[in-house]
Amino acid sequence: MDGKGTGRMEVKDFARWVKKNNDSDCRKSIFAEAGFAGLAFLYALFGDDNGIGYYGGGALLLVFAAFSIGRHQWERYFYVSEGDIPGKRMPVSQVLRFHAFPAEAYFRYVFSRMNRPFFRVLLFSGIMVFLAWEKVGGKGYEMAAFFVGLGIFCAICPYLFGFIMKKHFLFQLKTGNEGMSHLFLRGIAALWTAVECIILVMSLVVGLLLFWIVVSSFLELPMEETVAVCRSYPNKYSIFAVLICIAMWIFGMENNDTKKLSRFFYMISFLSLVSAFVLGTVENYRYTEIAGEEIRIRNFWQEDVYGIEEIQGFRIYEDDGSIQLELDFPDRAVEKSFTGWQSLNDLYEEKYYSEYNFIADYVEKFQKLGIEGELGDVEALEKDVEELDPEVKRGLRRIVELMGNYKTLTKL
Amino acid sequence: MLQAENLSYGVRTAMGKPTGFRITNVNFRLGQGYLMVLLGKNGSGKTTLLRLLFGLYQPETGEVLWNGRNFSGAGEMAKSDIRRDIAYVGEEDIFFRQKSIGENAEYFGDFYPDFQFKVFREILEEFDMDTKLLEKTLEELSTGEKKQVQLAFVLARRPKLLILDEPGANLDAVFRVSLMERIQKQIAEDKLSVIISTHILEDVEDIADYVAVMEGGNMEFFGDRDRFFEWMGKEQGVWK
Predict the structure, then answer these.
(1) Across chain A, what does the average pLDDT equal?
(2) Where in the sequence is the domain holding A291, given as residue range(s)?
C-alpha cells in the first residue's frame, strides 16, 4: 500500500473492480436469463407447428436476452452494492463525481463490453434456427429471416439502452441525484424489475417441468401429456407471477427498511408459484383413453372406468388438424377424447392404420348400442379428397356413412 | 488562479422544480497560494457556490475559470482532467462505503499523479488517527472520522485548489488545529489555494488571506482580511 498514484488509472481496471464487486448481486439475473432461455427452448421444442412455439419462444428468448444484457451490464458497471444488504446498490457516479474520473472514457469502455454477451444471444439464435429448420423443414427460410430480423433488433437494443443510460449516468454525475426526476427511466427500471422477476419465476417453472418430464418417463406416463402441461401452464398462471412481481416492486425490494417485507413477498411468490404449478398440472393432467370395451378417464388421484354402453352421446369433430371424439358421460361433463395416444400407437400395430378407422369402429359400436351422435366440422372433408391418405379416406367414409351424411359421402 | 465571473444559478429540487433560491452574479479571483474564507449564515448560498466552483452544478450564466480554462462549461472529460488539480470535501462521501479505507485510497489515489499512500498515512497520523482504521470500511467509521479520513485523502492528493465545505462541522477543536496546520504547510510547499466555508469568525483572523461573505445568494463582500474587518465594522447589524 505504499505505491504512488500513477494518475493514469485505466478505466478498465476500475470497471473490473466495480464488476467484481457486483457479480454476486448479478448472479440472480444471470440465473433468470438462463431460466428464460430454458423456457424458450421448451417452447421451441414442444410448441405448436403453426409457429407459436418456434416464433414465440425464439422471439421471447431474443428480446428478453437483449434487455437482460443491457440491464446486467449497466448494473455491473455503474452501481456498487452497499455492504451486506442484497440488492441495495448505489450509483458509482455518486462518488465518482468528486474525483478526476474520466466519465466519458468509462462509459465508452463499458459500452464496448455490452457487445460481448450479445454473442451469447447469437449462439442461442443459432440453436433456435437449427431447431426450427429441423422441425419445419420447408419453412426454414422464413424462420431464418425472422431470426435475422430479431437479431438486428437485439443488436440495436443494448445501444438504445446505452444511449438512454448515458444520459442518465451523466445526469447522475452532474447532480448526484439518483435520477428520481427521470420518471421515464424509473419506469423502465420498474418494468425491467418486473420482467426479471417474471423470468426468475419462469426459470423455476422450467426447472419443475423438467423434473416432471423425468418423473413422467419413469412412470411411463405419456409424454404428450407433459408437453400439454408445458404449453398451457405458463400462459395460464403467469398472471399470478406478474401481480406478485408488481407487488414486490411497489413494496420496495431495494429498501433496507422493507427487507423483511421483501423476503415475505419472495416467499409468497415462491409458494404461489409452486401451488400454481400444482394446480395447473392437476388441471391439465387428465386424459381419456378408449381401449376395447372400456373408457378410462384418468387424473392425478383416480381413474374412472366406464363401459362403452354407459355413454349417453357423442360428437365427432376436428380440432387443430386432429380428429376428436367427444363423449357424453352420465355423471360428468362432456369429456374430450384424444382418441387415446396409447391407443394411437396401437393403431399401427392393430387394424386401424389411422384414427379415423379407430373412431369409425367405435361409432359402429355406439350405434349398435343405440347411442346417438353428431358429426361436427371435419376439416378433412373440405380438402381435396384426392390428397387424403387412403386409410384416412377409408375411415372418414365409414364415419360419414355411419352418421348418415350422404351428401358428403358422394365426395368421398 | 481561480476566477468566478458573473456566476448565476437557480437551485432546483430533485424533481427539477426551481426552489426560488438563486446565486446571483458572483465575481471573485483567487490566486495561487492564498486561502479564502467563505462566510455566511445557513441558507446564504455557501454550499451552492462551492458546488458551482467544483463543477457539480452548471451555472446558468457566467463561468468558472481555472488557470484560464473554462471549467464550468467543459465536457465531462475536460472536467475530469481539471479535477486532478481541484479537490472538494463537503457533506457527501467521496469514498465507497462498503470498501475499506485502504482500498478506497488505493483506487481513487490512482486517479491522481501526485497521490502517495505513504503521505496519506502520515497525514492520518498527524490527525492523531489510528492507522488500523485503514482496514475498516467507511460505514464502520463515525461521522467525524469519515470526514477526517477523506480530508487526509484529498490533502495527500496534493491538489492545487482545495474546496472545503464547513470542514469544522462534527470535528473537535484539536483536529481543526491539525487540519489548519497541514493546510498551511501545503500552502507554503505547493502554493495550494484554499476555499473554506465556515460559520466561525475566528477562522478569519487565524487563517484567511481573503474573505467572501454570502447573503441571500449574493456575494455581499469580497476582499482581503483587513478590508473585511473594515467592512464588518460598518455592517455591525449583520455580523455583531
Answers:
(1) 61
(2) 287-409
